[in-house]
Design a protein that fits this description.
47 residues, mainly beta, 4 strands
Length: 47
């Protein structure tokens, strides 16, 4: 889980250091609370 840090607004960043060169990667960020889950958009990371 990654939460926005205090004082940085709603922007949160995460560095992923264990990636394989020339592989395709896709990410999605979901939000959840007591009302349920909202699925985020799937994004293809460019090489």
């Amino acid at each position: 889980m990654v939460f926005a840090r205090k004082g940085r607004g709603s922007e949160a960043k995460q560095r992923i250091a264990a990636l394989v060169k020339d592989a395709d990667y896709f990410v999605r960020v979901d939000a959840f609370n007591e009302g349920g889950i909202t699925k985020g958009e799937v994004i293809h990371l460019e090489k």
